Each structure stands twice: as structure tokens, then as C-alpha cells.
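ok so I'm stuck.
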Amino acid sequence: MLMEVESWHPGHERSIVVAPSVGDVVSAIASVRAAESATVSFGEGAEGVTVAFGDGADAVEILAAGLIIGVSRGHHTAVAVNGDDWMVLVGDPGATGEVELNLGGQPAGHPRRRLVSEEDATAVALEFAVTGGLDFSRGAWESPG
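replied:
not stuck anymore, here's the structure
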């Protein structure tokens, strides 16, 4: 299992931890708490875990399988990825409207209902790091489509 912490603003920083401990996960999420744009990603660590689209300076890598915790301006998101299947953790099913976040270094509107607390983001990150998977029957996971 790999954990990658990537922060885009104010400068680009990236670190990778192999076989993260509970302390590593908690510290990583706490370290990007106030970030303008950061992700904490978890994957299996095998070659081919990431796939790229675009080319040159516009190339973007995404996990082929794993969990991505996005952090922007005090807000957290959680997205589980398995190939073409994505599941998004819902924080408040009754929330409406959007908030502008800067995730992956790109500003965009994000549904308020898909913002989660730091505690919930940490809990799913720990679940994934410890077990290598997620129990989608717990929590409010939904397909983004």
C-alpha cells in the first residue's frame, strides 16, 4: 500500500509513504488541513496503479484503484476509485448548492452534499490504509453519475 500526499499551493510538494501506519495517515491529513489544494491518495503500490491522460505539461495521473482524500480551503472530500467505477462519500445528503474548491490544483464548483468532515475523511483513509478496502455499506457512498 502506498500513500501519496500532494499539495499544489503555494508550491508543489509531493511525498510518498510505503505501508503507511495509522500515525502516518493521521499526520498526513492533519498536515494538509489548511491547504489551498492538496490530496492524500492511497493505492496498492504495484506498477500500473496510476493511469495518465493528456500529454506533456497537461498530463494528469489518476489512481486506477484506491482512495483519494481531497482537501481545499478547510473542506474535505473522499472518492474511491476502482477502474472506471467511482464512489463519492456524502457528508450531508440534504445540503444544496456548490462551493468552489481547488482540488488537484484546479478550481471548480463542488456539491456541498459531497463535503465531509476531517474526521470522516480520516476514518475512511484509516479504513483503506489498514484493510486495503472500504465497506460501502457504512457511510453514505454514492456513484457520482
